[in-house]
Design goal:
This protein is α/β, with parallel strands linked by helices. Helix content is 43%, strand content 8%. The protein contains eight helices and four strands; from the N terminus they run αβαβαβαβαααα. Helix 4 links the parallel strand 3 and strand 4. Helix 3 packs across helix 4 and helix 5 runs antiparallel to helix 8. GO terms for molecular function: hydrolase activity, acting on carbon-nitrogen (but not peptide) bonds, in linear amides; metal ion binding.
Length: 248
C-alpha cells in the first residue's frame, strides 16, 4: 500500500490495524560511469515496496535527495545539507505522527545519510510534544540500511570479493539492473580504482576518485545477481520490521 496512491479514508482505515509505516530514503548522486544517479533511492524504494508487500504495510513517499555534498563535483548530483535533511525528516515524521503513526521504519540506501537520519530521530523525539504529536513517549524510529544486512554483505563477498568496494558497488548496480533492466549502462572502466581515502570536500573527492568509484568493479553486476540481493534484503528486513512493530 503506497501512501501517495491512497485516499485519506484508506489511510484512516489502515491506522485501525497498524501504526507502522515504512519510509524509503536514498540519494541522487553519481555512481561511477555505469551506475544510475538515482541508485540509492531506487534500491531503497524497491526493497521498501517488497517489505511492505510481505508485511501488509504502508510505504511513505521516498526521500530521494539525501546528504551527498561530497559528490557535487560530478554533474547531476543533488544534495541537501545535513541541517536541511534533518528538518525534512522531522517534518515528515511530525506530520505522520499527528494522524496516529507511531512506528517509523526507514529503509536507507545511502551511507552518507546515516548520521543525519539518526540525529533527526533524536530531534523528533525532542520536539514531538511541541509539534502536537499525541503520545510522544510512544513514538519509535528505526533505521535499516539494506546494504548492511548480513545476508547482503555475505552475498557480496561471495560474488565480488574485494571488488565490491564501498561506492558504485556491483551489488547496488546489480539491484538497479534487476529493478530497471531497460536502463543498464555500459562504459569502459579503468582496471585500477582508488579506495580508502578519507572523505572531505567535493573537489577533493573528485580528485581522489576521478570516475566516482570507490574500490568497486560494477562491471561484475548482472540483473540475476540483483534479484538475489533484492530477495535477501526483503526477507531480512521483513522480519526486522515485524519485530520493530511490537517494540516498546
Amino acid at each position: 500500500m503506497l501512501l501517495h496512491r491512497s485516499t485519506w479514508p484508506e489511510v484512516e482505515a489502515y491506522l485501525q490495524q497498524s501504526d507502522g509505516i515504512i519510509i524509503p530514503i536514498g540519494s541522487t548522486e553519481q555512481h561511477g560511469p555505469t551506475g544510475l544517479i538515482g541508485t540509492d533511492a531506487i534500491c531503497a524504494e524497491a526493497i521498501a515496496h517488497g517489505v511492505a508487500d510481505r508485511c501488509q504495510a504502508i510505504v511513505g513517499p521516498t526521500i530521494n535527495v539525501g546528504m551527498a555534498l561530497h559528490h557535487l563535483s560530478f554533474p547531476g548530483s543533488i544534495s541537501l545539507r545535513p541541517s536541511t535533511l534533518l528538518q525534512v525528516i522531522v517534518d515528515y515524521l511530525s506530520s505522520l505522527a499527528q494522524h496516529g503513526f507511531r512506528h517509523f521504519y526507514f529503509i536507507n540506501g545511502h551511507g552518507g545519510n546515516i548520521a543525519t537520519v539518526r540525529a533527526a530521530f533524536a530531534e523528533f523525539y525532542a520536539v514531538a510534544g511541541d509539534r502536537r504529536c499525541p503520545e510522544p513517549d510512544r513514538l519509535r524510529c528505526h533505521l535499516a540500511n539494506w546494504f548492511m544486512v548480513p545476508a547482503v554483505t555475505q552475498l557480496a563477498r561471495e560474488l565480488y570479493g574485494d571488488e565490491e568496494g564501498s561506492h558504485a558497488t556491483p551489488s547496488e548496480v546489480a539491484l538497479t539492473q534487476f529493478v530497471h533492466p531497460e536502463s543498464i549502462k555500459k562504459a569502459p572502466l579503468t582496471a585500477e580504482v582508488n579506495t580508502s581515502h578519507a572523505i572531505y570536500a567535493a573537489a577533493d573527492f573528485r580528485r581522489r576518485y576521478p570516475d566516482g568509484r570507490m574500490g568497486s568493479n560494477p562491471a561484475l553486476a548482472t540483473p540475476e545477481q540483483g534479484q538475489r540481493f533484492y530477495e535477501a534484503a526483503v526477507a531480512a528486513l521483513s522480519q526486522s520490521y515485524e519485530s520493530f512493530l511490537v517494540s516498546e
